Amino acid sequence: MIAISARPVGRNWITISFASTLYLCPILDLLLAEVPDYWQAELRLGLQEALVNAAKHGNKLDPGKTVGVRFSIVQNQYWWVISDEGSGFNAPCGCNLYTDDCNSLLAEDVSDNSVLPHVEQECGRGLFILYQIFDRVEWNSQGTELRLCKELPSGYLQPHLR
């Protein structure tokens, strides 16, 4: 079951929540409905990775636990805030790629291939994908909420928020 909250008057956030599942097509369609066509495939890949991580690794695919997503457009920035009910994720920290607060990694920090996960490594590929697609990747201190931002060039027509 998918629950969608209407966008309150004067607010730009829409909220979607769903039971932990890997069947994400209808959820991704909703989350990308206001994204320009040119960016749809790339952002679908990134959001799918983030949602799979929340449902599979965070909630352990427990159908009694939900994944929540808030979405907003602020000027030319598209924001998704994904939360799960898991025990939390320790964002990789302590390497020289991270910013001062150690919860945010900027895309330009991994724009070269020096931090590619090893081809045979099971872990790390999804995080690498997130860093390549989104301009900002941030976790809360508990590791249960992921904030993703994609800033589109100013030449793209912004959708009208309903």
Description:
The protein has a 7-stranded antiparallel β-sheet with strand order 1-2-3-4-7-6-5, with helices on one face. Mean pLDDT is 80; it is low at 94-107. With 162 residues, the protein is of the alpha+beta class. It has 3 helices and 7 strands. The protein starts with a strand and ends in an 11-residue tail after the last strand. Helix 2 (37-58) runs antiparallel to helix 3. The longest helix has 22 residues, at 37-58.
Strand content range: 15-25%
Number of strands: 7
Rounded Rg? 16 Å
Helix content class? 10-25%
How do the helices and strands follow one another from N- to C-terminus?
EEHHEEEHEE
Layout of helices and strands:
Layout (H helix, E strand, L loop, with lengths): L1 E4 L8 E6 L5 H7 L5 H22 L7 E9 L2 E7 L20 E3 L18 H9 L2 E4 L5 E7 L11
Antiparallel strand pairs: 1-2, 2-3, 3-4, 4-7, 5-6, 6-7
List its traits.
162 residues; single chain; globular; 23% helix
Short description:
23% of the residues lie in helices and 25% in strands. With 162 residues, it is an alpha+beta fold. A seven-stranded antiparallel β-sheet has the order 1-2-3-4-7-6-5, with helices on one face.
